[in-house]
Design a protein that fits this description.
Layout: H1 2-21, H2 28-46, H3 59-87, H4 90-97, H5 101-109, H6 117-135, H7 147-170, H8 176-198, H9 204-228, H10 233-255, H11 262-278
C-alpha cells in the first residue's frame, strides 16, 4: 500500500505543478513535450541506460505494451484539450476521471480478479462522487455535446492503465522501468511532432516546468506499477483516482484559496468512505 500512496502523492504533485505553470508557460503542448522528454531520460537511466535494449524474453511485450501506452497517454491529453473546446470543461474532466472504469472492469473480465462486496460498493460510491464533484459547475452553453468523443476520451484515459496491468500480468518486473521508457519515448516523439505542427516555441519556462513536472509524472507511473504487484487492480485504480482528487482539492483550498461548495464537500465525504471500503 505504501507504493500506491507514494504514487498518489507524486500524481497530485504533478497536477499542482501544472496549475502553477499556467501563469508562466505560453505553450501547453511544448511544456507537455518537455515533460515527456524528462520522463524518457529518467526512465532510460532508471532502467540502467542501454539495458532497456538488452535482449530479454519479455522485451517484446514491454515494447508493444509501451507503444500502445504511449499513444494512449498523449492521445488522451490531446483529446481532453479538444473536448474542452467543444464541450466545455465539466464533461471532459468527468469523463477523463471515469477512465478508471476501463482498467477496473478489464481486471475483472480479462484477469478474473474478484472484488469483495464492500469494494464493489466503494467503487460505485467513488464513481458517484466523481460525477457529483464535477456536476455543479457551469459548462459552455454554446458547445455541442459530442458523446462519441467523450467516450473516446474515457477509453483512452483508461488504456494506459490497462497496459500497466497487462505488463504486470504478462511482462517481467525486471523490465518495469524499460516498459515505462518505451511509453514515454513514444509519447515524447509524438508530442514533439505535435508541438512542431502547432509551431509552439519551447522557452526556458517550458523547459523548467517540463522537468519539474516530468519527474513526479514518471515516478507516479512507476510506483503504481509496483503497487499492482501486490494489490488487486480493482483496488489500485479507484483508490489512485479518488486519492488524487482529495489531495488536489485540498491543495486548491490551502494553496490557491479556492472555495469548497457544499456539493464538493459532500462528494469528498463520499470519496473518503469509498476509499475506506476499497481498502477493506
Amino acid at each position: 500500500m505504501i507504493y500506491l500512496i507514494i504514487g498518489i502523492l507524486f500524481s497530485s504533485m504533478l497536477s499542482i505543478l501544472l496549475r502553477i505553470s499556467e501563469k508562466y508557460v505560453k505553450g501547453d503542448t511544448a511544456t507537455l513535450a518537455m515533460n515527456y522528454v524528462c520522463c524518457t531520460v529518467v526512465a532510460f537511466f532508471d532502467a540502467g541506460a542501454l539495458k532497456v535494449f538488452t535482449p530479454h524474453p519479455s522485451l517484446g511485450i514491454a515494447v508493444i505494451l509501451g507503444i500502445i501506452g504511449g499513444f494512449a497517454y498523449l492521445g488522451s491529453f490531446l483529446l481532453l484539450q479538444y473536448n474542452i473546446k467543444t464541450n466545455g470543461v465539466v464533461l471532459p474532466a468527468t469523463f477523463m476521471k471515469l477512465g478508471l472504469l476501463v482498467p477496473t472492469i478489464s481486471s475483472v473480465v480479462i484477469f478474473h480478479e474478484r472484488p469483495e462486496i464492500l469494494q464493489i460498493i466503494g467503487f460505485c460510491l467513488a464513481i458517484a462522487a466523481i460525477i457529483l464533484i464535477n456536476s455543479g459547475k457551469k459548462s459552455d452553453g454554446k458547445s455541442q455535446l459530442k458523446i462519441g468523443l467523450l467516450i473516446a476520451l474515457l477509453v483512452l484515459a483508461g488504456i494506459g492503465d490497462v497496459m500497466s496491468k497487462c505488463h504486470e500480468e504478462w511482462g517481467s518486473t525486471d523490465l518495469t522501468e524499460g516498459f515505462l521508457f518505451f511509453i514515454f519515448l513514444v509519447a515524447c516523439t509524438l508530442c514533439l511532432g505535435v508541438t512542431a505542427y502547432k509551431k509552439q516555441k519551447i522557452g526556458l519556462w517550458e523547459i523548467f516546468f517540463g522537468i519539474i513536472i516530468g519527474i513526479p509524472n514518471y515516478y507516479s507511473s512507476k510506483f503504481v506499477l509496483i503497487a499492482l504487484n501486490t494489490i488487486p487492480a480493482v483496488v489500485v485504480f479507484p483508490t489512485f483516482s479518488v486519492g488524487c482528487i482529495v489531495i488536489v482539492t485540498l491543495a486548491g483550498l490551502l494553496l490557491f484559496k479556492e472555495k469548497l461548495t457544499k456539493r464538493q464537500g459532500t462528494a469528498l465525504g463520499m470519496i473518503m468512505v469509498a476509499l475506506a471500503m476499497l481498502n477493506m
